[in-house]
Amino acid sequence: FQTRTVNTMLNQEAYSSYHSTNLDAQVARASPIELVLVLTDGLLEELARARGHIVGKRYELKAKSLNKCTDIINGLSSSLDFDNGGEVVENLGRLYDYCAGRLYTAGVSLDPTIIDEVTTLLTTIKKGWLGVQAKTNG
């Protein structure tokens, strides 16, 4: 049992180390749009974890996971150019604020369907960023 537990822990550490190194490499060479997409992908992964923690009744892990999600959303929101972005940026900022508020509600009410709602919204936002990326690269 102990050997299996140690091996599992080492595999998780190795994956985390690889994932961190891979993420660092992606961020180092990323354009601003690519960086938003990398952060959004990380956010969507963490939302799935948070949902799993709620369903699995792992409330301490749920809290940490939702805090990470909120931090990423706040980072995305703070990177918006409100001075030059016009109505689109204002709407995106409001949408990010809405998502952060919904995550707070999900954490208090322990309702995984709220996580699903936020995931759907952020997936739609990601598609929009992918469209912007395609236009700037094409």
Brief write-up:
By secondary structure, the protein is mainly alpha-helical.
Description:
The chain is mainly alpha-helical and 138 residues long. Helix content is 88%, strand content 0%. Helix 2 (32-55) runs antiparallel to helix 3 (59-78), helix 3 packs antiparallel against helix 4 (86-109) and helix 4 (86-109) runs antiparallel to helix 5. It is globular and about 45 Å long. It starts with a helix and ends with a helix.
How many DSSP helices?
Answer: 5
The Cα radius of gyration reads 17 Å
Summarize the helix and strand pattern as letters.
HHHHH
Estimate the strand proportion: under 5%
Mean pLDDT over the residues: 86
Oligomer: single chain
Compute the separation of the termini in Å.
Answer: 54 Å
Number of strands: 0
